[in-house]
């Protein structure tokens, strides 16, 4: 069987997670720096999800994927992340 809506949602759940292994996110950082890194990670995830949502509007071939389910999930996750995003650095 091909890629499913569940597979796409799993991908979206983990979008942006690769940044946690970036060298500039050092475990020995001060709490303030760690908070800043967490905010940067959150902003990165919001940006990636926003881009996914924009691109989904242009996507023609969804194969066997339920596009409505996936897009609704992406928008919901995007909105939840935005609500948790502080507006100041």
Structure description:
With 89 residues, the chain is mainly alpha-helical. The protein has one domain (5-16, 29-83). The protein has helices at 5-14, 31-56, 67-83. It starts with a helix and ends in a 6-residue tail after the last helix.
Number of structural units classed as domains: 1
- Distance between the terminal alpha carbons, to the nearest Å? 45 Å
Element string (H = helix, E = strand):
HHH
- Principal-axis shape: elongated
The total count of strands amounts to 0
SS-derived structural category: mainly alpha
Low-confidence stretches: none
* Residue-averaged pLDDT: 83
Query: Helix amount, in percent?
Result: 55-70%
Count of DSSP H/I helices = 3
Work out the radius of gyration: 15 Å
Please give the largest β-sheet.
none
The amount of beta strand, in percent, is: under 5%
């Amino acid at each position: 069987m091909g890629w499913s809506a569940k597979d796409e949602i799993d991908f979206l759940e983990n979008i942006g997670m690769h940044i946690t292994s970036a060298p500039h996110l050092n475990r020995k950082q001060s709490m303030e720096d760690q908070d800043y890194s967490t905010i940067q990670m959150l902003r990165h995830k919001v940006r990636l999800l926003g881009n996914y949502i924009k691109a989904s509007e242009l996507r023609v071939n969804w194969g066997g994927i339920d596009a409505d389910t996936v897009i609704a999930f992406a928008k919901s996750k995007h909105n939840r992340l935005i609500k948790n995003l502080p507006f100041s650095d």
